[in-house]
Design brief:
Elements: E1 2-6, H1 18-23, H2 25-38, H3 42-48, H4 51-54, H5 57-74, E2 82-85, H6 89-96, H7 102-122, E3 125-131, H8 135-144, E4 150-157, E5 160-166, H9 167-179, E6 184-187, H10 200-211, E7 222-223, E8 230-231, H11 234-243, H12 251-260, E9 265-268, H13 274-282, E10 287-290
Parallel strand pairs: 1-2, 1-9, 9-10
Antiparallel strand pairs: 3-5, 3-6, 4-5, 7-8
Amino acid sequence: MKAIVFPGQGAQFPGMGKDLYEQNPKAKELFEKANEVLGFRITDVMFDGTAEQLKETKVTQPAIFLHSVMLAMTAEGFNPDMVAGHSLGEFSALVANGVLTFEDGLKLVSQRALAMQEACEINPSTMAAILGLADEKVEEICDSITGEIVVAANYNCPGQLVISGSNKGIEIACEKMKEAGAKRALPLPVGGAFHSPLMEPARQKLQDAILATQFSTPSCPVYQNVSTTAVTDVEEIKKNLIAQLTAPVKWTQSVQNMVADGATEFIECGPGKVLQGLVKKISPTVETASI
């Protein structure tokens, strides 16, 4: 069985999508539609902007979404048995399996990016990657820190967990992780504590936008970050999508469940190859490729 997976923030690179725009009339039409929907020429930033300009959240998230969705929409014989996306990638996955239209998906991603940006400005916060510690140990250390918010945010693969929280909380946690034997405890260059309670203002805004959007029955199950299991019920998809901003991304568990449900081939659809690497670490026997 074929699983198609979609990357999240951090996969962007200067020039992304330019070849698609130039070589595929359908992609060109969709890119121009995106410029119209967003109210600015995101294509200019994607094709000719610097890495720094691409890092701005209001650009990054729609750019990765567009690149991923365009690849899916222009690929020959695109018929996944199941889909999943890492964080932001979940929106790409929901367009790919017919739950959201291209336009609605883009609008939600844009609203999500702006809401997250605002939440970051309200609460200065950050994230850090913890390498070489068991998930349980990382969770235990996060729980032991009082007076600050620190939580496990991204379960990327065994031995690689990202934590999220207040600047002070992350600083304390990184020290404790190293003392506990972590190979690395590395603060990440991100603008805020994604997938933590500090994203609550963004979650509320996104909830209103999601509830006002038409969701359709999926063509195949989506394995969502919050639930990690196959979901086809539209109301449940919405509920998980709303919860996602303040809840952890359980990528390890999602991939394990996809494999248990019969996935033998994982195809990454979007910029970069980060997810292929993570999938191989979670389940070394599966085939991986990219579109």
